């Protein structure tokens, strides 16, 4: 009988946890830091080629000039855009936001 009571208590605890997780305070979420990265392009190279790089070397990327850049949040593409200058700093003007349903497929 003790085993059944313990099992029932665990089931109640799990149900309580599910209720708590469905009521997350939005203020808590808004204070979580995320990493935002703008990706110009990618490439792969052999280590011997990497070791030959010097100042002035050019590394060819997989993007065509003028193609939108990817904006990643915690390594997930959430938008695309173009580089802009804002008060002598680089920025990105979003031209497309990836729909949430599409982002969830990559998680």
Task: Please describe what this structure looks like.
- With 107 residues, this protein is α+β, with helices and mostly antiparallel strands.
- 34% of the residues lie in helices and 27% in strands.
- The chain has four helices and four strands; from the N terminus they run ααβαβββα.
- The protein has helices spanning 2-21, 26-30, 47-51, 100-105; strands at 36-39, 69-73, 76-86, 89-97.
- A four-stranded antiparallel beta sheet has the order 1-2-3-4, with no helix packed on it.
- A hairpin with a 2-residue loop joins strand 2 and strand 3.
- The radius of gyration is 23 Å and the shape is extended.
- The mean pLDDT is 83.
Kindly state the percentage of residues in helix: 25-40%
**Average pLDDT figure:** 83
Radius of gyration: 23 Å
Listing every helix as H and every strand as E from the N terminus to the C terminus, the arrangement reads: HHEHEEEH
Q: So how many helices?
A: 4
Strand order, sheet with most strands: 1-2-3-4
**What is the makeup of the main sheet?**
4 strands, antiparallel
The secondary-structure class comes to alpha+beta
Cα separation of the termini: 43 Å
The count of β-strands is 4
Low-confidence stretches: none
Strand-residue fraction?
Answer: 25-35%
Can you tell me the overall shape? extended
